[in-house]
Amino acid sequence: MTPKRLPVVEEILAANDDAAARNRALLDAHGVHCVNVMASPGAGKTTLITQTALALGERRRLGVIEGDVASSVDTETVRALGLPAVQINTGGGCHLDAPQVGAALEQLPLDALDLLFIENVGNLICPVGFDLGEHTRLAIASVPEGDDKPHKYPGIYSAVDVLVVTKVDLLPYVPFDMATFHRLARSLNPNIAILEVSCTTGAGMDAWIAWLLERATNGRP
Ligand code: MG
Ligand code: ZN
């Protein structure tokens, strides 16, 4: 039996999908590959974005949209690196939607960008239900959160293209079994790419950057 959705929810999602299609067309017209970054609070979204920008150097021109319930601290961190960045404050909303991203895109110099990272609101549940017009959906899982997260949040693990496991330098200090984590994630999403990184030591960053460059060059739907 197909679960029934309330008509008002159907309308909201249809409006979101229309706006997402417009965002994607705009990004395509400017040759910008867009990555929607989703994770729980504190998993290391902003840090992965800033370390990726530093590792890419001059190879790709990066812009960032920062989504947060409140504040602009992450946007200030990103701008300090010289990257164009736009803040979206959701005012309590627990995910970004495509109309919000569409308004942010108008404030970015798209002709001067190759890659756009959207840092979604820290939340493992609803962000994945809203297409923003991205080309790649990325989830971050950090080692201190534990290796059982795919069990608890199957929706996001089933839906993303790539999973980046962060803070692997903490593996000696916390109970996190990497093989178990991979097995759980692949049981939900057999084709998922899994990269393991430490933004502190730099371990795994070369492989992540190689994956990203390959995806941004050849992986556009
Ligand atoms: Mg952040
Ligand atoms: Zn939400």
Give your account of this protein's structure:
This protein has one domain: P-loop containing nucleotide triphosphate hydrolases (Rossmann fold). Strand 2, helix 3 and strand 3 form a beta-alpha-beta unit. A seven-stranded parallel β-sheet has the order 3-2-4-1-5-6-7, sandwiched between helices. The protein is of the alpha/beta class and 221 residues long. The protein has helices at 7-29, 45-56, 73-79, 98-105, 149-152, 154-159, 178-188, 205-218; strands at 33-38, 62-68, 85-89, 115-119, 136-142, 162-166, 193-196. It is 38% helix and 18% strand. The relative contact order is 0.17. The protein starts with 6 loop residues before the first helix and ends with a helix. Helix 1 packs parallel to helix 4. The site of zinc ion has 3 residues, from loops.
Number of strands: 7
Q: Please report the distance between the alpha carbons of the first and last residues.
A: 31 Å
Q: Order the strands across the largest sheet as they lie in space.
A: 3-2-4-1-5-6-7
Any idea what the radius of gyration is? 17 Å
Q: Which descriptor suits the 3D outline?
A: globular
Structural class: alpha/beta
Q: What percentage of the residues does DSSP assign to strands (E)? A: 15-25%
Count of individual domains: 1
Query: What composes the largest sheet?
Result: 7 strands, parallel
The CATH class is identified as Alpha Beta
The succession of helices and strands, N to C, reads HEHEHEHEEHHEHEH
